[in-house]
Amino acid sequence: AQKVTQAQTEISVVEKEDVTLDCVYETRDTTYYLFWYKQPPSGELVFLIRRNSFDEQNEISGRYSWNFQKSTSSFNFTITASQVVDSAVYFCALMFYSGAGSYQLTFGKGTKLSVIP
Amino acid sequence: NAGVTQTPKFRVLKTGQSMTLLCAQDMNHEYMYWYRQDPGMGLRLIHYSVGEGTTAKGEVPDGYNVSRLKKQNFLLGLESAAPSQTSVYFCASRPRLARGEQFFGPGTRLTVL
Question: What is the mean pLDDT of residues A55-82?
């Protein structure tokens, strides 16, 4: 089964605090891709990062960083020095091969982050 | 480039009515998807298409039909709307490459009374 679990439903932090959003995935595939998307209050989905299963290097982009660990099937997302504009729902997603040349995304249920000024 | 567009943005239906949601993309992407988003459920795949003239069922296909007559358009139909279909619907597209991210439309908020 292909599954993504985001155990944290809602998180509140005070501005400038660091926060980590957890993502645990399940798959039997050896080739797969992991994504994070941001959904601000305006409702659109914004792509943040993609990582393939063969690349376990951590990635940093400004205040954002991602920790991919195949040993624990986790792809966690950390925001350093959080800002009010980071308030959003964040989705972790797993892309897997679904047959007949097709790939599908399965999403976690999302973590709602509120950054309090 | 407009990217992925969805028509309409909002719609209110009465139970039993029918409607079609239109998704259009101008990026020449092969793959297109329809999702629904419900509170606390994340996004769930309804139907998808790997190319013009092809469609396949996703996780929650019941009550919906789709068509992909042109590469750039993917239509989602509700033949007899039910209150359980009240949701926000997102369309997405992506290129054939496996690494390709999905590009999402702005969403359609549908309410069925």
Answer: 91
Minimum CA–CA partner of B106 in chain A: A44
The chain B residues in contact with chain A (CB within 8 A) are 31, 33, 40-45, 48, 50, 56, 58-59, 88, 90, 98-99, 101-104, 106-107
User: How far apart are alpha carbons B33 and B23 in whole angstroms?
Assistant: 9
CA-to-CA separations, A72 to A1, A25, A97, B62, in angstroms, rounded: 17, 9, 21, 35
Backbone phi and psi for residue A18, each to the nearest 5 degrees, phi listed first: -90, 150
List pLDDT tens digits, range B27-73: 999 999 999 999 888 899 999 999 999 999 999 999 999 999 999 99
Q: CB-based contacts of B19: which residues, under 8 Å, 6+ apart?
A: B11, B13, B77, B78, B81, B110
